[in-house]
Here is the input.
Amino acid sequence: MDEIRGTAQGTAPVPLSVLDLVTVGAGTTATDALRTSVALSRLAEARGFHRYWVAEHHSMPGVASSSPAVILAHLAAHTDRIRLGSGGVMLPNHAPLVIAEQFGTLEAMAPGRIDLGLGRAPGTDGATAAALRRTDRLNEGADDFPEQLAELTRFLDDDFPDGHPYARIHAVPGPVQATSPGGVQSPHRPPVWLLGSSGFSARLAGMLGLPFAFAHHFSAQNTIPALDLYRDSFRPSEVLDAPYALIGVSALATDDEKEARRQVRAAALNMLRLRMGRPGLVPTPEEAEAHEFSPMEEEFIGSWNSNVVHGTPDEVRSGLDDLQKRTGADELMLTSNAHSGDVRLRSYELIANAYGLPAAA
Here is the structure.
C-alpha cells in the first residue's frame, strides 16, 4: 500500500506527480524531447513530486513516447528515488507476457520504484492500432481487457493454476527465480493501476480493489461520474483497503498570465490538428498567433483550454486546489504541454515553488 499512496509535500493538498508525453516541438528532435524528459524527471525528484509516468502513444509526430518501457529504463538510470511508471501501457496492443517481462526488468533495474499503469484504448487511430495488433478486430481487444489483465497479473505473480496452458511459462525477471535452487527474488512487484477516461475501467478498478487514474486532461466532463463509480464499486483487496484515485491534469504556469495564454493556445492548435486527422509537431506560439482560426476552430480552442489550468503560479495553484476539492482526487498528476522543453521545465519549477515543495539540493 505504501507503494501506491503518496505523501503531500509543502502546502499541496495531495501528492503531486508528473505525466510526460515526451512532446516534440517544431524545429526540435525526439532527442531534444528525451533530454527534456531526463531533466524533468530529475527536477521532479529533487522537488518532491511523488511519481513520474510516461504515456504510450503511436503515429503522432509530436509525441515521442511510443515505447514507455524503453524510456522508463533510461529515466531509471538518471534518478534515484522517484517512482517511475506507465501512464499507461495500452494492454490490448501487447501480449501480457511481454509486458510482465518488460516491467519485471524495470523492477530489477529500479527496485521498489516501478508502477504499471494499464489502459484499454489503443493510444492511436484505428489503422495504427490494427498494425500494432496485427488484426482489424479492435473491439475484441478492448472487450477482452479484463481477461488480458487477469493473465498479466498471473504472469506478474507467477501463479497460474496447475493444468493451465501457461502454468509452465514464467515471466523473467519474476517470482520464479526465488523458487529456483539458490534463488533470491526481490520482494517488490510493480503495483498495477487501471487508467480510464470513462466508466469501464473505473468500475473494474473498484471491483478489483486497484488504484485508479482518470484522464481528466482530455475527458473532464466524465471525471466526477467516473470517480464516483470507482468509489461506489470499490472492494477492499490485498492491494488497497480503501479507494485511491489520481487524475491527470493539464497545467502550465509561466511568469506572467499573457505568456501562459500564448503557450496553451499553441498546444491547443496541435490538439486541433490531431482531432482533424493531421497530427504534427507542437507549433510555436508565433505560429499559433499567425494562424487564422475559423469560428468552429476558435470554439474548439476555447473549450479545450477551459480544462487547462494555466496562468501565473498563484493562479495555477488556486486552480489545482479548486479541482482537487471538486473531485476529491487523492493525487494530482500534472502534464504541461508546450512547444519548448524549457517552458515545460519552468512550469513545474514554478508550481513547485507555489506550493513550497522541497528545494532542490
The mean pLDDT is 93. Strands lie at 16-20, 51-54, 83-90, 114-119, 192-196, 212-214, 245-253, 309-311, 331-335. The two ends are 28 Å apart (CA to CA).
